[in-house]
Design brief:
The complex is a heterodimer of chains A (about 230) and B (about 140). Chain A has about 230 residues and is α/β, with parallel strands linked by helices. Chain A contains 9 helices and 8 strands. In chain A, strand 3, helix 3 and strand 4 form a beta-alpha-beta unit. Chain B has about 140 residues and is of the alpha+beta class. The radius of gyration of chain B is 19 Å and the shape is elongated. In chain B, strands 2-1-6 form a 3-stranded mixed β-sheet, covered by helices on one side. Chain B has a 3-stranded antiparallel β-sheet with strand order 4-3-5, with no helix packed on it. Helix content of chain B is about 25%, strand content about 30%. At the A-B interface, strand 1, helix 1, helix 6 and helix 8 of A face helix 1 and strand 6 of B. Strand 1 of chain A pairs antiparallel with strand 6 of chain B, so a sheet runs across the interface.
Amino acid sequence: MTHIDISKPILDKNDRLAQSNKELLREKKIFVLDLMASPGAGKTTAILATIEALKERFRIAVIEGDIASDVDAQKIKAAGVPAIQINTGGVCHLESDMIRHALDQLPLDDLDLIIVENVGNLVCTTEFYLGENAKVMILSVPEGDDKPLKYPTIFQTSKAVILSKTDTMPVFDFDYEAFERTVNSLNPKAPIFQLSAKTGEGIQQWAEWLANQVKHAQNAPDGQSLH
Amino acid sequence: MHEMSIMQSVLDTAFSALEQSSETRITQIVLTIGEQTDIQEIPLTFAFEALKPNTPARNARLVIHMLTTRSHCDDCGIDFDHDRFSMICTDCGSSNISLLTGRELRIDALEADSESFESIDSDADPFADFLTDRPE
């Protein structure tokens, strides 16, 4: 009987490849946002609104993660932005090797910001480091104000929280104060952005926050970890 | 569902450690999992049982140590246990805290030997099926 000591992160292989993604992206001065949410929360709509708000200031590309189809990548391409579709074929989250494969197909010398739309899922996406600078999540109003209590990890791993479809708040009796209280308790440092793609509410504030993150990362000295 | 990916990573690490040793059979795998990961013991064990047949871990036992949440307060300096929903210091109320335990996803160690596998598959190459019929 032999005892073999390992003492390594289970996701060591994913993390090491993510770190190499990170180094490549830092060298190219590209900021990567990993956007996580449930299916139907409005990730693609929020990305389109973000592109519209920031396209004059940054060169943007999108990596779309879905189990199947390229409908999202088509929508992004229609907005005039390069988009790579990843089909996970059933896997419920993106992993760092999938991102690397997508990065290999993007014009990295001509980009400032890559938005990764992760597979619609509030659980699995949180555990996999892709090499991103920040994870941000979207919760949509119809999902309910109690979601931070049910899915705490995603709220804790997000650098900012977007509440989308805020124009529907009266219809769904969404208790914003209760929601804010729980999010603040789970993740006191994360700002909450209230967004409505329909009315345009909050898009400017969210876009400004993201723009500051991108500029901060681009101006950071080489070798400084931004993760 | 992500427990399958997690367990596949555990087994990949275990098999490469086994290959570097002089042993042929894994008898035990020990993991440490923090409660702030959304990895649960039951689906993880299920994934282990589903993935281990026809591998060098087919006779192995899985041991999982679950860790609760503990943090250090960067303002008042204490270390404290707290529930995962309240990321503030229990003493001074500061939100300026650093997590000490709770986010672990670690493979600690293996036990391995060179005993034969149960007689029914004693002739099989322990890696053959695993390499050719690898699940997603």
